[in-house]
From TrEMBL:
It comes from Boletus edulis BED1. Contains 1 topaquinone per subunit. Belongs to the copper/topaquinone oxidase family. This is Amine oxidase. Residues 183-391 form the Copper amine oxidase catalytic domain. Signal peptide: none annotated. The lineage of its organism: Eukaryota, Fungi, Dikarya, Basidiomycota, Agaricomycotina. It is an enzyme of class 1 (oxidoreductase).
Length: 467
């Protein structure tokens, strides 16, 4: 074994950048050094106890990052009711604590107000402003904060060979929303951003990045000098290659007027067009909202874009690391350092694609967040990779022949491919019958033949609307 100094840009990784888990909140020192000094406040304000005992009625939680550059490990510790779904029952009580180093006996409470003493003094002399606790715990609603909260994931996809027809990558977020307190129990405004590493290898490893945009232009032709005038405003398409990594940190064009593709300039289809695969945005193609915050200074640089393209390197296996979370100022993997001005023309490339959602809290988040809107995806589809639509070569294609008489079913040729059934008795064969067409008054329209029906249904194809 050897240190992964070729992958991680920080050596050594500070101990204070360690990840914390749910069991860490039950360390004895959390109760003896941090909870014990304010035990009377827990009882007076919340009628609760947090002593590290089985009959505790309060439990601890926290939110990171816990460090900035690894020189300390500190956080605001929060407290919740120790009941089913404690994340939905936060208390408006926070302690700033120091849990730096390996010696847990040195862990300590730093402050509640200015000091713990000033807090207890306010509690004793009656100057402490108390929240209306019953109403606070009963009400739910959106909570907006300017502190950035970002759920981040980095996913490495194995090389995707270009033999597939297309691939859809879709993610749904579900679960519970951790609540905060702001005159009520409310969810925190935050982003979910998930990063995929996609290695396409389009017709080989020598690939290029193609940018395609659409816009409009005004052209004048003398033969257009009719009722509409000689000037025509029309759509135009522009294609250009991005040749430098530094220019490949990308956001999607406005109104989705264009996109990005990975192509092989040395491989062409019979029509003379370069073969490629396009990266299409699906549902909710987002990037992070907050940029420049000290909590996310350089550790989530990959989340700033919709996608990015870089040279493939064994020393850059992922866009982040498990230690990045607690090292925003000095992350072991700084995504921006992948982009150092290298040429990306006909090179082995990887695409870093982001999906996610902007989570705007709502009352329907409790007790579980919705999955229908918390969905995001992107598509990988062939772009002039094949000479024609290869779906017609599918082995389970079905050929329909129009019936000779109106109302009769279509004749079907399924090429011997029979569906597989998981029930004791197979259902009857599916019957392909002509559709029924109705006029604007609701009456059914009769046609002499299927061809006549098809001709009527295709009439709208013959009209082009100018925009």
């Amino acid at each position: 074994m050897s240190p992964l100094t070729d992958i991680y840009q920080v050596d050594p990784i500070p101990y204070n950048a360690r990840a914390w888990y749910i069991n860490d909140w039950s360390f004895p020192e959390i109760y003896s050094n941090i909870a014990a000094p304010v035990a009377e406040a827990f009882k007076e304000l919340f009628g609760g106890q947090a002593a590290g005992l089985p009959n505790d009625t309060l439990v601890a939680g926290g939110a990171g990052p816990f460090s900035y550059d690894g020189s300390f490990c500190r956080l605001w510790l929060s407290w919740r009711r120790s009941i089913s779904g404690p994340f939905l029952h936060p208390l408006n009580f926070y302690q700033y604590i120091d849990i730096s180093g390996t010696d847990t006996s040195q862990w300590k409470l730093l402050k509640i107000f200015d000091t713990t003493e000033s807090f207890l003094e306010a509690l004793h002399n009656g100057s402490l402003k108390r929240s209306p606790l019953p109403a606070q715990e009963a009400r739910l609603g959106p909570y907006f904060t300017d502190k950035p909260s970002l759920n981040i994931f980095s996913i490495w996809m194995e090389r995707l060979k270009s033999a597939c027809r297309h691939r859809v990558i879709c993610r749904r977020a579900t679960g519970t929303l951790i609540k905060g307190t702001w005159e009520a129990t409310m969810g925190r405004l935050h982003d979910h951003v998930i990063n995929y590493k996609v290695d396409l290898d389009v017709a080989g490893t020598a690939n290029s990045l193609l940018k395609t945009t659409t816009s409009q232009e005004a052209v004048t032709h003398p033969w257009f000098n009719d009722d509409w005038g000689s000037e025509v405003i029309q759509r135009t398409i522009r294609r250009e290659y991005i040749t430098n990594e530094n220019d490949a940190l990308l956001k999607l064009p406005g109104n989705f007027q264009g996109g990005y593709s990975v192509v092989n300039q040395e491989e062409k289809i019979k029509w003379g067009t370069v073969r490629g695969y396009a990266i299409h945005p699906g549902y909710s193609p987002i990037h992070t909202t907050v940029v420049g915050s000290k909590h996310a200074l350089n550790n989530v640089n990959w989340a700033r874009y919709n996608l990015a393209v870089s040279r493939r390197k064994e020393t850059e296996p992922s866009s982040s690391s498990v230690w990045n979370f607690n090292l925003p100022a000095a992350p072991p993997v700084d995504f921006h350092k992948f982009f150092d001005g290298e040429n990306i023309t006909q090179q082995d490339l990887v695409v870093w694609v982001n999906v996610g959602t902007h989570h705007l809290p709502e009352s329907e988040d409790a007790p579980n967040t919705q999955t229908n809107t918390a969905t995001s995806s992107f598509f990988i589809t062939p772009l002039n990779y094949f000479d024609y639509d290869v779906s017609i070569d599918s082995t389970n294609a079905i050929l329909l022949q129009a019936p000779s008489k109106e109302g009769e079913p279509f004749s079907v040729d399924d090429y011997g491919v029979r569906p597989v059934h998981c029930i004791p008795q197979a259902p009857p064969p599916f019957e392909y019958a002509p559709v029924h067409i109705f006029d604007r008054r609701g009456g059914e329209v009769a046609f002499e033949s299927v061809e006549a029906m098809r001709g009527a249904s295709e009439l709208y194809h013959r009209i082009t609307f100018g925009v």
